Structure formats: structure tokens, C-alpha cells
From TrEMBL:
<feature type="binding site">
    <location>
        <position position="260"/>
    </location>
    <ligand>
        <name>glyoxylate</name>
    </ligand>
</feature>
<comment type="similarity">
    <text>Belongs to the FMN-dependent alpha-hydroxy acid dehydrogenase family.</text>
</comment>
<dbReference type="GO" id="GO:0005737">
    <property type="term" value="C:cytoplasm"/>
</dbReference>
<dbReference type="InterPro" id="IPR013785">
    <property type="entry name" value="Aldolase_TIM"/>
</dbReference>
<feature type="binding site">
    <location>
        <position position="152"/>
    </location>
    <ligand>
        <name>FMN</name>
    </ligand>
</feature>
<dbReference type="GO" id="GO:0003973">
    <property type="term" value="F:(S)-2-hydroxy-acid oxidase activity"/>
</dbReference>
<protein>
    <submittedName>
        <fullName>Glycolate Oxidase</fullName>
        <ecNumber>1.1.3.15</ecNumber>
    </submittedName>
</protein>
<feature type="binding site">
    <location>
        <position position="47"/>
    </location>
    <ligand>
        <name>glyoxylate</name>
    </ligand>
</feature>
<feature type="binding site">
    <location>
        <position position="284"/>
    </location>
    <ligand>
        <name>glyoxylate</name>
    </ligand>
</feature>
<feature type="binding site">
    <location>
        <position position="282"/>
    </location>
    <ligand>
        <name>FMN</name>
    </ligand>
</feature>
<dbReference type="GO" id="GO:0010181">
    <property type="term" value="F:FMN binding"/>
</dbReference>
<keyword id="KW-0288">FMN</keyword>
<dbReference type="InterPro" id="IPR008259">
    <property type="entry name" value="FMN_hydac_DH_AS"/>
</dbReference>
<dbReference type="InterPro" id="IPR012133">
    <property type="entry name" value="Alpha-hydoxy_acid_DH_FMN"/>
</dbReference>
<feature type="domain" description="FMN hydroxy acid dehydrogenase">
    <location>
        <begin position="21"/>
        <end position="389"/>
    </location>
</feature>
<feature type="binding site">
    <location>
        <begin position="100"/>
        <end position="102"/>
    </location>
    <ligand>
        <name>FMN</name>
    </ligand>
</feature>
<dbReference type="InterPro" id="IPR000262">
    <property type="entry name" value="FMN-dep_DH"/>
</dbReference>
Amino acid sequence: MNDPMTAPVGPAQDTSKAPEAAGWEPVNVREFERHAQLMLSKNAFDYYASGANDMVTLRENRAAFNRLRLRPRILRDVSMVDTSTSVLGQKISSPICIAPTAMQRMAHDSGECATAGAAAKAGALMTLSSWSTTSLEDVAKAGGPGGARWFQLYVYKDRKITEQLVKRALAAGYTALAVTVDTPVLGRREADMRNRFKLPEHLTMGNFVSAGGAHASGTKDGGNDSGLAAYVASLIDRTLDWNDIKWLRTICGSMKIVVKGVMTAEDAAESVRQGVDGIWVSNHGARQLDTTPATIEVLPEVVAAVSGRCEIYLDGGICRGTDVFKALALGAKAVFIGRPVLWGLAHSGEEGVSKVLKLLHDELVMALQLTGCTRVSSASRSMVTHQTSYYSKL
Ligand SMILES: Cc1cc2nc3c(=O)[nH]c(=O)nc-3n(C[C@H](O)[C@H](O)[C@H](O)COP(=O)(O)O)c2cc1C
Ligand SMILES: CC(C)CC(=O)C(=O)O
């Protein structure tokens, strides 16, 4: 049988076919995305860029940030700005962290190692996907001993594989498990179905080479011809529930547990009851359930439900320093970026990721200065309002 995860799809990058990209220095994240579109194969770019179904939530993740208005304060000395903060007790240089995205070597041959290198140089926190195209040990080496690293966990039907992954992450120095709870089945990504998405032949799922799962193909699932949907259906456990979180707690040693994919006050309150260390507000970059609200829209209800009892993070649609500012002001301790890192990788590997991190960092510094803040904790609820609040006062 033609293995859907390994059949050839052509090179991920072909600069000779993208003369428009040569010498182009993108000045914002959206331009990095357009640059990546020129550089990458359709198979890879569509996989990275697309959301589920009609991509209503994909647009909302951006649009909702743009509906929020900033209320700047003036005449405050902003000559010195400190963006450093901490997550789960670990100091980081900036609240802009890296979300797990699978299969980064499709964007650049150096893939996850390049991301780890750029994160370590910037003093940023990186979360590695279970489904990386490099082993978690090699990524830890590339990030060096000082790098802040979390491991994203997909819980396998085969609990031995899950347990081995957790133990390996602990041994390699990852300090938290981000347990993804929004993917009992893969969302319907129609571009991947049309393209019959496949991992290029020369790449493997780096964490499973010795377990024999690096090329697993799975069965056809509900007519969805994306090789990935079949792969997920064959391996990921749909029975996952709170008992599994308890079980993970018994095997994760000193690693903290963060639930990734919380979108309601009810689940936030339950997460706190279950004793998780952190709540990651995420709709999986709008790739799972379409027509959910934007993450920035649900952040206030999550913050209210948690009432300071654990840290809250947010991802989804962040591509400006002002977006980061808004999330912090509404109660997130840190934010995570997914696609922007892939666009940086596609641009120029580690250097490209460094550029994206610096770009967003500089934009955040400016957002802080222009709102009259000298540190991230000064971004406050009163500095953000919904655009309609101005009209309602007329
Ligand atoms: C190409 C791609 C692959 C992803 N792979 C994973 C993954 O392996 N595990 C996971 O928990 N989330 C995964 N995500 C979701 C991200 O961790 C994150 O929630 C999302 O990308 C944030 O939205 P943004 O891309 O708009 O920044 C992936 C997202 C993308 C775009
Ligand atoms: C391999 C996939 C399940 C990775 C993922 O989370 C995604 O593509 O959104």
C-alpha cells in the first residue's frame, strides 16, 4: 500500500522557483507568511496555513484582536522597558513563547533544532510537538542546557508509548508537559484533503523512529484523504479524560502539567479542581472545531473562572506586539505563537526564527512604551476595550 505519511511530494523548498522571494526582507509577520508561501511546496504551506472547515475561526482569531482598542496612558517615563517574566517559576526574557507545531523540517531542513537554537538565543520558552521531525533529545541538545523547554504531549492509545515519551521528555530536561486536549480526532482541513497531505519521504516523526511508528499510516478515515487524519485516527486516544490527566501526574516526575486547548470557563474551573499547573487557552490555531470564538474573546471568562489559582496562557492569531499586549492586559501570563515561527523557519532557518522573535519583541516593547508601561505586568485590563464601547457612549 502507498504509505500516506511517506509517499513523495517533491521538495519542500525550491528557491529557484521563487525569484520574488530572493532578497526580500519582510517587515512584519504577515509579510513573513507571504514570503513562506513563495518558498514552500503547496503541500507544506497549505498544511501550515490552513484552518478547519470554512476557516471562520481562523479569521476570527485575527479579527477579534483588531476589534479591541487600546487606551494609552501618557507622561510616564518609558525610557527603560523590561519584558522579562516567568512561567511556572522559570524566568524567561519575554512573554512571547513558542507553541508546538508538528513537522517543522518541512519548513526548513534544520527544523525543530533551528527553532530551539533561536529560542535559546532569545531566552524564550519553546514547546516541542510530540510530532516533531527531530527527536526530543536532539532538540534539547540544540537548545543547550540553559534553554527553557516544554514538551507537548499527544496521548497515544498505546499507553506504553505515551509513558516512554513522558519519561524521555523528563530525562531530556523538559520542565512541563503541555497535554493537548482538543484533538480526539483531527479537524477537517480541506486543503490537506485536496492535496492528500503527506510527510515528504526523507522526513520521519523523530520521536518514534525506534518505536517503529515513524512512518505509521493508519486507515482511511471518514473519506478524509489527508494522510494525517488517518495517522491521528490510528494512534491518538479518543477516550482521553480527566483520569488520564491524573495518571500523567503519577508518571511525569518533576514536570508540571498544563492543559492545552481550554476554551470555556467551565473547563477552566474543572482544570483548577483537577490541580493542573497551567491553563493554555487555545483553539489549536483554528484547526480543530470551526466556528469556536477567537481565543482572545474567551480569555476574560477563563480568567474570571480561574481567579488567580493558576497561570493562564493564550495562543491563536498573534502576529503583532499589540496582540501580545492585549492578551497580557486581559490576564494571560504569556502568549504562544505557532505559525509565525514556521514562517521564520521557511525564510532562513534559525536566523529567520530569530528575526520573527525579535520583530514581535520589538513591537511589544513599542506597544508597552506607547501605552505608558515599563514592564509587562503594567499592561492592565483598563487599557483594553472593545471597539463598540466607544459607540455605545455616543
Ligand atoms: C502547522 C501546525 C501544526 C501544529 N501542530 C501542533 C501539535 O503538534 N500539537 C499541538 O498541540 N498543537 C499544534 N498546533 C497548534 C499550535 O500549537 C497553536 O495552538 C496554534 O498554532 C496557535 O495559533 P497561531 O498559529 O495562529 O499562532 C499546530 C498548529 C499548526 C499551525
Ligand atoms: C500531527 C497533527 C495532529 C499536528 C497538529 O496538531 C496539527 O496539525 O494541528
